[in-house]
Specification:
single chain, 14% strand, eight-stranded parallel beta sheet, globular
Length: 321
């Protein structure tokens, strides 16, 4: 069950989310680009993943229009229904894809998103990339219109720079609204937001940073370092990227195993725990899961707290890579 010590406000909204949510890009299906990244999952498997996440205290799920052209949204809705969860029991985030589109497309496609979610509200609607054919301000105004129309509750962005995030925040402030989140890559192996102004700006403006890729495509679980056969079974797109990083990351992975043993945890749980505590309450994380035990593991990362010494040691080790 979700407890008060695992919950945080999403930005300055009244949405209470668990420190760790579940990203469901893996529910996209092995189609098009995603067939090089993920194995296909049956709906029964996806139902079990959602149920395990909920059981472990995760109360919010992140999907997107791009993920299988709505397939991930539909699969998530089916998973939530299978688990017996009503709309008010969970928080659902999805994203509008801006590539080759203008802000005028935002109101035109929102009903498709709601149709795929099959009765689950859009609690948090996100502009997926900063690469649309309209300005940040135009996109935020279109998103604000959706809030006023009762189509979505809160607004976020993804992969926005510090300047783009500030512009989005300013545009929404003019409408009497707030920017709740910026979803960016952040992990022990990618800490660029600490030096490019994104994290500092988020803190200043009260915006949550939502980490995607918090386990660096599984690299921070240690499974690829400890068992070469796991890497051999990985879809080719991910395998080529992971192979290039194995040796340079080995000292950090060894440290994760050491700290995990001392905390009765796994390396993945240590990496996630560090992420949602190192920067105070500003950072949330959305690891994905293609197996039930991965959802259980993600939720379990909220059940312990790293010592200051362990946190500092991980900080130093990750900076040396």
């Amino acid at each position: 069950m979700t407890t008060n010590d695992t919950l945080r406000n999403l930005g300055r909204t009244d949405l209470k989310v668990s420190k760790i949510g579940l990203g469901v890009m893996q529910f996209s299906g092995a189609e098009g680009f995603f067939r090089w990244v993920f194995n296909d999952l049956q709906q029964t498997e996806m139902n079990a993943i959602v149920a395990e996440a909920l059981k472990g205290g995760i109360n919010w799920f992140d999907t997107a229009e791009l993920y299988g052209r709505g397939r991930s949204e539909r699969a998530l809705a089916q998973g939530l229904k299978s688990a017996g969860r009503e709309d008010d029991d969970v928080i659902v985030c999805t994203k509008w894809f801006p590539i080759f589109r203008t802000a005028a497309n935002i109101p035109k496609t929102i009903d498709v998103r709601l149709h795929h979610l099959d009765g689950y509200s859009i609690d948090h609607y996100i502009v997926h990339q900063p690469w649309g054919f309209s300005s940040v301000e135009a996109e935020m105004n279109a998103m604000a219109d959706l809030v006023e129309a009762g189509k979505v509750r809160t607004i976020g962005v993804s992969n926005f720079s510090a300047d783009q995030m500030r512009r989005a925040h300013t545009a929404l402030t003019r409408r009497g609204m707030i920017l709740a989140s910026n979803q960016v890559e952040y992990s022990l192996l990618n800490r660029s937001i600490e030096s490019n102004g994104v994290l500092d700006t988020a803190r200043e403006l009260g915006i949550s940073i939502v980490s995607w890729g918090p386990l660096a495509s599984g690299l921070l679980t240690g499974k690829f370092h400890r068992d070469a056969s796991v890497l051999a079974r990985t879809p080719v797109g991910r395998r080529m990227r992971l192979q290039r990083q194995l040796e340079r990351t080995r000292p950090l992975i060894d440290l994760l195993f050491k700290i995990a043993e001392g905390n009765g945890a796994t390396p993945a749980q240590v990496a996630l725990n560090w992420l949602v505590s190192h920067a105070g309450e500003t950072v949330l994380a959305i690891p994905g899961a293609s197996k039930v035990h991965q959802a259980e593991e993600a939720a379990g990362a909220m059940r312990f707290q790293l010592s200051k010494a362990d946190t500092a040691e991980l900080d130093r080790a990750s900076r040396m890579i």
